[in-house]
Amino acid sequence: MKRTTLRLAAAAGLLAGLATGAMAQDKKNVTIGVSIPAATHGWTGGVVYHAQEAAKQLEKTYPGLKVVVKTSPDGASQANALDDLTAQKIDALVVLPFNSDELTDPVRAVKKRGTFITVVDRGLKDASIQDIYVAGNNPEFGRVAGKYMADNLKSGNVVVFRGIPTVIDEERVVNFEKALEGSGVKVIDKQYANWNRDDAFRVMQDYLSKHPKIDAVWASDDDMALGVLEAIRQGKREDIKFVLGGAGMKDMVKRVMDGDKMIPADVSYPPAMIATAMNVTAAQFFTDAPMRGTYVLNAQLITKDNAKEHYFPNSPF
Amino acid sequence: MTETALRSTSQPRRFSLDMRALSPFIALIVLMIAGALINPDFLTASNLLNVVTRSAFIAIIAVGATFVISGGGLDLSVGSMAALIAGAMILILNRAGGADASTLLLGMGAALVLGALCGLANGLIVTFGRIEPFIVTLGTMGIFRSLVIWLAAGGTITLRNADLRELYRPAYFGTVAGIPVPILVFLAAAAIGAILLYKTSFGRHVIAIGSNEDVARYSGVPIWRVRTLTYVIQGICVAIAVLVYVPRLGSATPTTGLLWELQAITAVVVGGTALRGGIGRIWGTVAGAVILELVANIMVLSNFVSEFLVGAVQGAIIIIAMLVQRSLQRGR
User: Fold this and answer.
1) Which ranges carry the Periplasmic binding protein domain (chain A) (predicted)?
2) Which residues of chain B does A235 touch, with a Cβ-Cβ cutoff of 8 Å?
């Protein structure tokens, strides 16, 4: 993730250098407003952390840049926060909307004042509002996990944990199964466990009673993976070779880094995508490179080799 | 059936009462047979022990809910309360630091006190504020839930000391004479609950208030005190459930205990306690909690229910179980 950001910024710098020869380093005053949800669960907690870190970093990199980060507990207060931000005369807005329906019009109103708009993760209903769109890749998230299973297991039985019935979950699971097609790996069971540790523990206990031989578990989420591990430990089962989670929670990345046999890898869906969006937005003002467009971040496979880049010990997530 | 006319009048009545109290257990046996037919792995000792152990949280909370409901009240805040107590307890354990039994006892004591206080708050607002318990506990449900989100800063509250976790772990995973500790805890909670409800004047007062508050008041039952105490008992039961919940995963999240209140109420009603108050059945409640967990277990073990339809089949089984119970009672 971090690497993607750096690469984007580096590429931007290089392009700008080529285009103009001498980059415009004259004093420029730019204010970027960042509007994100407050930390109501682990992943958004990570978003808040990375937004604040990126703000500090960017202000150091680009003298004259001011970044204002505002968190809101729900959609209505996020709309109010947008008003507050525009009152501070922002040049650009980076927004991770609570939901598409409620916030499309408030963001459109900000756009009408001539503000540059960057939308993150959850898209608005009207895509013409945004200048830049940065998002994670859910189909890829499933595909990377499925490919890892197919490559490392070759053949065997896999049980699958689904999240909450949503489009995100469906995209992930469908592509996971597609990636397994033609390999010897078979999905023998699928159940919803609501991205919840307790539910995952319960379902895993039942899987263990039901299936005498399970080779690997796709928990599809790090929270669920923690519940799964506890159930396996209690059941004292030796047949399960590994558990594959997802999202990149620091505790799990740490286990990958430490070479835990049960957690050999993880798949990223980084809350740090907010930092990517802020970097690209800042580059729009301080470099001459074209920045407008859609950035889809790869769901990266986190292994022992690259776990360091995904480990943020100070992040709450 | 012509014989009944010859018998003394008290006998058939006692028999029908027994039938009512027995019906949740009959439903339980029917479900077990169904489970065994669906998947032979169902009847293995390890699976059944898993299921009964898992039902411990809801069973313990539902023992408290039996008091509140049979006394004509309702408590919707138990799930959020459980999350709050779990979060606070883990934070206290983290702060205290040491990995010894005294730290653990401090945390457990704090959890019990906090549970009793949460229950006392519910009880006092219901009785002295004269507000419908549905509204009061809906309010405290929101308050407790936000407090735990605030304590966790939106993330997870985790028991950090690994040694302390290992020390505490047997409280969920340990066994005494082959029986998992949580099962022993909920049997003990139910036994104490049964003695309180059936053998003490307090228990009779609870039932009296639940069946007719005015009559109870004219008979000199201290309504406010008894009613407030039922909520305190509920709070303590939630705390006891938390004591066996925390060692399982060693963490509390903003989603801990979500919808536990509905499961507890369902267990109480499936167990034969009247939702309008006046009838309380502790052992039926325990059977109800096990039934709920069994239904979920059978769903995962069955091969023919799509994961999209699990909720629908679960709902149908609970309704059918209730209908069977009713027809058993009428048939006598």
Assistant:
1) 32-283
2) 46
> Which residues span the domain enclosing A188?
138-267
What's the confidence (pLDDT) of residue B1?
A: 40
Quick check: B279 and B270 in contact, CB under 8 A? no
Residue B326 lies in a domain: no
CA A128 to chain CA mean position, Å: 23
Domain hosting B160: range is 46-301
Strands A184-192 and A293-296: unpaired
Percent residues over pLDDT 90 in chain B: 60
Q: Tokens 């228990």 appear where?
A: B203
The reply to whether B310 falls in a domain is no
Confidence of residue B18 (pLDDT cuts 50, 70, 90): low
Size of interface A-B (CB pairs under 8 A): 79
Q: Structurally, how many domains does chain A consist of?
A: 2
Chain B residue at shortest CA distance from A164: B308
Q: Chain B contact for A188, CB < 8 A? A: no
Answer whether residue A279 is part of any domain.
Answer: yes
Q: Range with the lowest mean pLDDT among A80-89, A274-283, B8-17?
A: B8-17
Q: Which pLDDT score is estimated for A27?
A: 60
Residue A126 has pLDDT above 90, yes or no: no
Closest Cβ–Cβ partner in A189, A207, A209 for B46 = A209
Please state the rounded mean pLDDT for residues A161-165.
Answer: 87
Alpha-carbon distance of A95 to B215, in angstroms, equals 61
Kindly report the number of other CB atoms within 10 A of residue B123's CB atom. 27
Q: Give A4 to chain B, closest Cα distance, Å.
A: 26
Residues A171 and A80 in one domain: no
Better-predicted residue by pLDDT, B16 or B63: B63
- Give a yes or no: residue A59 inside a domain: yes
> What number is the ipTM of this complex?
0.79
Residue B160: closest C-alpha in chain A: A251
In a domain, B315, yes or no: no
